[in-house]
Write a structure and sequence with these properties.
With 382 residues, the chain is α+β, with helices and mostly antiparallel strands. A hairpin with a 5-residue loop joins β11 and β12. The longest helix is centred in the last third of the chain and has 15 residues. The protein starts with a helix and ends in a 6-residue tail after the last helix.
């Protein structure tokens, strides 16, 4: 039996370390009961994810550590290191392995640029004054024991705030906007916020739109219209938007001349201050067979908002010729004639609209009733 022992031990060693020589790890609960957690927030196309282990105020043995977290459990300043290569270390901003901060795109954190990627998140707490938040390129370490300041990607000052009690250390986000948000670490009765912003978000979307229009999305005129309308909403990239509008109207295999495509191009021309061309194209749009009663009515409303009253009335009257005895037509005429000061004529059409509002449409029925009351008193309804 003694002769078999070395062979048996070698076999156990091979099984433990595996053919690669690496020790196989068992799947066990996290150290100290500090559960793994994570949270992701999107800012438009960009995302930020924070993964961490979440300690609680109550110690594993049941002791209540409330009032003993900051300055004791988490020491002020850099802490002496009894393990690893660093003499003094920041707090890992969580428990166990590094708290990992990951961004999908280049961002600015606390006003400083940070390339897309993953980073270890650390904090240097201060008893008085601002704390220091560190994002380190070393994000796969266990805690801060091997922290190297030379590997810092970014350092910013953050100001802790008094906050409602949190038993478990938690990361979250507030002030969630298209191109920015504020990340917040909350634990015990403190919150540590820091701002994240994505520079050039609209340009990111434009790049995404350009890429998609070269793919199968580009075979639908509706997507070209949507791309143009995005540029109009943001008042940007109008010259390129004009070429997209042409593609929607007459592009090979794609283009269709209809109310949507023609009116969209007219809107770009108007934004480019080419008003005569815009007006001519809009006339084609409302005369097109695809123009619905509501689309023509809405264009008339836009003209009223621009104080082009006579032009608006002409559009409302055209709508009446195309779609007689429909309630939107009479609403439009009531508004148009009211803007011209022709209240009796406007009142007549408001009452005709009231007779034609679809049954159950309480919102528009109420709106028309209000118009009738105002016109009866000789008041403008616009």
């Amino acid at each position: 039996m003694r002769t078999l022992l070395p062979t048996f031990c070698c076999l156990l060693g091979w099984m433990a370390f595996g053919a690669s020589g690496l020790l196989a790890q068992l799947t066990l609960p996290p150290s100290g009961g500090n559960q793994r957690a994570g949270v992701t927030q999107y800012m438009g196309l960009a995302s930020v994810t924070i993964t961490y282990h979440s300690p609680d105020v109550t110690a594993p043995n049941g002791d209540d550590r409330r009032g003993k977290v900051w300055g004791q459990l988490v020491p002020w300043g850099l802490a002496p290191n009894g393990f690893g290569t660093a003499k003094e270390i920041p707090w890992r901003a969580g428990a166990n392995e590094n708290t990992v901060f990951t961004v999908s795109h280049d961002v600015r954190v606390g006003g400083k640029p940070l390339p897309a990627g993953s980073y270890g998140l650390h904090l240097i707490p201060a008893e008085n004054g601002p704390w220091t938040l560190i994002l380190s390129r070393d994000y796969q370490a266990w805690g801060s024991y091997f922290y190297d300041a030379g590997h810092d990607a970014l350092r910013i000052s953050v100001v802790p705030e008094k906050a409602p009690y949190h038993e478990w250390l938690t990361y979250g986000f507030r002030d969630r906007q298209l191109d920015r948000c504020t990340a917040v670490l909350s634990w015990e009765e403190l919150a540590i916020p820091f701002e994240i912003e994505v520079p050039g978000m609209i340009d990111l979307y434009l790049d995404q739109v350009r890429a998609e229009l070269t793919n199968n999305q580009g075979f639908m005129w509706q997507n070209w219209v949507q791309a143009v309308q995005f540029c109009l909403q943001q008042q940007t990239n109008l010259e390129e938007a004009l070429t997209w509008a042409d593609m929607a109207i007459s592009g090979p295999f794609v283009g269709q001349a209809n109310f949507a495509t023609l009116s969209t191009k007219a809107a770009v021309l108007l934004a480019l201050e080419r008003e005569t061309e815009a007006a001519e194209l809009m006339s084609q749009a409302i005369a097109h067979p695809t123009a619905s009663v509501f689309q023509i009515h809405q264009y008339g409303r836009q003209l009223l908002a621009q104080e082009k009253v006579d032009e608006a009335v002409a559009v409302f009257e055209l709508n009446a010729e195309r779609y007689p005895d429909t309630w939107p037509v009479h609403v439009g005429l009531a508004r148009g004639y009211s803007a011209q000061g022709k209240y009796k004529k406007a009142l007549k059409h408001a009452r005709m609209a009231q007779d034609n509002v679809p049954e159950g449409d309480r919102l528009n029925a109420s709106s028309v009733a209000s118009m009738i009351e105002k016109l009866g008193r000789g008041e403008d309804v616009n």
